[in-house]
Amino acid sequence: MNPKLKEIINKYIPYFVSVLGIILICFFVFKLLNSAEKEIVTYKTKKGQEIYFYIGEKKYEFSSQIVISSDNEIITVKTENYNFDFGSEPIYFKNKNEVLFPNRMSVVFTKNSYIQNKINKLSKIVLDGSLYIQNKNLNYPVNDAFLYDGNDLFFFLNETEIKIGSYSEKLSPFSYAVYNYNKELFMYDYKDDRMIYFPNVEENVLATNKDYVINLGTDSIIHKDGSKLLMKNLDFLNKLG
Q1: Residues of the chain by 3-state class (helix, strand, coil), percent to 5
Q2: pLDDT in tens, 119-173
Q3: pTM of the shown model
Q4: Rg (Cα) of the chain, in Å, rounded?
Q5: What gap in Å lies between CA 228 and CA 178, rounded to an integer?
Q6: Cβ(189)–Cβ(200) under 8 Å?
Q7: Phi, psi (5° rounding) for residue 13?
Q8: Is 31 exposed, middle or buried (0-12, 13-18, 19+ CB in 10 A)?
Q9: Angle at the Cα of 157 (from 53 to 197), degrees rounded to 5?
Q10: Reduced to 3 states, what is the DSSP secondary structure of residue 27?
Q11: Is the separation of the CB atoms in 104 and 153 below 8 Å?
Q12: CA angle 30-33-39, nearest 5°?
């Protein structure tokens, strides 16, 4: 080998090795973070367990086994005869005080400065003497809170009153409300199992209870010192637990 060429190679090999090492480290870190965020998970109901959910105003009920799978941003609900692409709509278990959330949610603690934490897809709220948020890695007691999907859906653990101008509607615990960009308001009352729908709502929509006032149009908490916007991008939140 040409001595001059050999000298050049020996001079720059350490730099090349260092750069290659940095690239490889970055690659593996990226793969690790990406796989952690992807959260490919599957949930199967027990055979014979009756479940139901609403998409808009339409109610769907099933007693056959359902399979819910999450592949990054796509959530699919499969039954013997149906196949749904799903959003954040809660799935209710009949004759059990349990609700399954197909998508990621945030938990907003109403007696702790409205701190938000996120929970994984396919987590459940279970009433067993007290309220618990459960998934394969979590069994966290929670009572004074509500859940928010970072978009339009608010799930209430406690009785909450929805106010639209002079109109009001009391929702029982385990109920939810969706106020979307089309100015459509959906309110599901768990106790009476009924969906209430209002199109073209232009007034402020407020969810109130002894611990909070939520403006569903601006996704903000109203409190004595002003207001606080809820975090919509759940990626920036710490996981619960």
Answers
A1: 15, 45, 40
A2: 999 999 998 888 999 998 899 999 899 999 999 999 999 999 999 999 999 999 9
A3: 0.81
A4: 24
A5: 19
A6: no
A7: -60, -45
A8: exposed
A9: 45
A10: helix
A11: no
A12: 135
